Amino acid sequence: MFSSAAAVAALPAMTSASSTQHFDPVSRAFHWLTAIVIVAAFILGPEHFGRLMRDGLDPATRWDIVWHESLGVSVFVLTLLRLVWVALRPAAPRFDMNPWMQRAARMLQDVLWLLMLLLPITALLALGSEGHPLTLLGGLRVDQMPFIANSPLAEAADWGEVHGFLGDAILWLAGAHAAAAIYHHVVLKDGVLKSMLLPGRDAH
C-alpha cells in the first residue's frame, strides 16, 4: 500500500537559522534513514494490491507486501520522531537566497512533511475500509480494523486511489526537491546540499 511513497523524500529545513555549515548528526541520520526506507518501500510496493486482496490473496504469503507495509509504518514513526526532533534540535544552517526561493523551499518542505504523514494514514484507511489485514514483520498482523470499517471515513473516499495519487505526488515532489538541492550545489554553490552531508565528506 505504501508503494508510490517513493524515492528520496528528503526533508531538510534548508532555510532555518544558524551559522553552522551542517545540520546536526541526528537530523542528518533521520534524513537519510527516512530516504532509504521510502525508496525501499517504493521498490517493494506490489502492483494491483487491492485486486490481489479482493481475489483472496493472504498478504502474509507475500514477502514484498509484508516488507512494504512494515516499511510504510516505519516511515510514519520516523516522521513523527523527526517532527519532535525539529522542535528540539540545535539551530540549523541559514543560507542566503532570494525570498521566492525561501518561500518555495518552505512550501515544498511542508507539503512533503504532510504527505509523509498522509500516505501511511491513507494506506491504513484503505486496508481498514476494505477489510484487508495489515501484515508486518515478525508475524505481527491486524486482521480487523473496526474503528475504520465502522466509521464514516470508510465510505468517504476510495482510499486506495487516494493513497496512489498521494504516492505519485510525493514521488514528483521528492524529485523536485532533489533537483533543487543539486542546482544549489552545482550552480549556486551555496552549501545547501553539503549541509546534509557528513562534515569532511562534502559532495564535489
From TrEMBL:
<keyword id="KW-0479">Metal-binding</keyword>
<dbReference type="InterPro" id="IPR016174">
    <property type="entry name" value="Di-haem_cyt_TM"/>
</dbReference>
<keyword id="KW-1133">Transmembrane helix</keyword>
<keyword id="KW-0249">Electron transport</keyword>
<keyword id="KW-0472">Membrane</keyword>
<keyword id="KW-0408">Iron</keyword>
<dbReference type="InterPro" id="IPR052168">
    <property type="entry name" value="Cytochrome_b561_oxidase"/>
</dbReference>
<feature type="transmembrane region" description="Helical">
    <location>
        <begin position="108"/>
        <end position="127"/>
    </location>
</feature>
<comment type="similarity">
    <text>Belongs to the cytochrome b561 family.</text>
</comment>
<feature type="transmembrane region" description="Helical">
    <location>
        <begin position="66"/>
        <end position="88"/>
    </location>
</feature>
<dbReference type="Pfam" id="PF01292">
    <property type="entry name" value="Ni_hydr_CYTB"/>
</dbReference>
<dbReference type="InterPro" id="IPR011577">
    <property type="entry name" value="Cyt_b561_bac/Ni-Hgenase"/>
</dbReference>
<keyword id="KW-0349">Heme</keyword>
<feature type="transmembrane region" description="Helical">
    <location>
        <begin position="29"/>
        <end position="45"/>
    </location>
</feature>
<protein>
    <submittedName>
        <fullName>Cytochrome b/b6 domain-containing protein</fullName>
    </submittedName>
</protein>
<keyword id="KW-0813">Transport</keyword>
<keyword id="KW-0812">Transmembrane</keyword>
<feature type="domain" description="Cytochrome b561 bacterial/Ni-hydrogenase">
    <location>
        <begin position="22"/>
        <end position="197"/>
    </location>
</feature>
<keyword id="KW-1003">Cell membrane</keyword>
